[in-house]
Amino acid sequence: KSEGCGFSxxxxxxxxxxxxxxxxxxxxxxxIGPLDGFRSKAGWPFTAEMVIKFDEEAKNYKLEFDFGDDxxxxxxxxxxxxxxxxxxxxxPKCGARVFEHGKNYVCEKSVPTLAQPTPICDxxxxxxxxxxxxxxxQIVKLLTTGKTDLLDKFVSMRTRRxxxxxxxxxxxxxxVNFEFAPSKFPPRKGATAPLTKAAVAATKGxxxxxxxxxxxxxxxxxPAKKVAKAAAPKAPRKAPAAGTAGTTPxxxxxxVIGAEPISRPQAIKKLWEYxxxxxxxxxxxKRTIVADDKLLAVLGQPSVGMFALTGLVGKHLS
Length: 318
Prior knowledge:
This protein is an alpha+beta fold. Helix content is 26%, strand content 24%.
């Protein structure tokens, strides 16, 4: 049997699984993209083109990522000339001008230029994010007002479902993040909190007085309970463990569930609400949580099992 030519490539490069149609296009054109949904070894998402190139050393073809002219300029130190381009607005990090460059919108001080050979800023955001094209007008709006319009063609790289979101400048994180529109289903009006024991007693007392006035018949009192003997003094209760009473979330956890003091069970509940709202469960194994940027700061790793959440969250309550 023939051993073949030896050419092959994996089904899931950098954590992103190829669709059959993408494989066919890739083999036909020897390039594809830009595609998003890739993840670096550190767990961060990135966007890139993929190309098939001949490797002189291996004497065979191989798959490579192509990050475009912007990445090439960063690696070679080649000076970028923005003189013929129109600025889109002021960089939210340093105030310099922002331009289109390669497959990104970048601050002029984030790439080597004649006026600034050594980059001193790192503001950059993609022209395509999760399959959603980001038009120039939306970047202008983001740089002017702090956020884009509601965009509806984002596609989750975990569930492959489309979702709507705005892009907004997150000054605390120092980067562009998603911002979601308020829920269309606000809390039901007229919902009442459960009555306390004191309220229940007061309600019963009022009802008894009302019945006596209406009928003229005095309500019978319940027989008095026997007085129990004085019990021995109880030992003082131990201080609750961290996370069982109202405790303060760390800055990382507060970014996900809010900064108000909270018990561990309530923190876990809110964390699950966040995970489900953002589709952060692995579709192949719902017991595995795949962290986004905010959750990564809490969990400390790109993915964890659901049974590890309680222990990891406890470290962020004090």
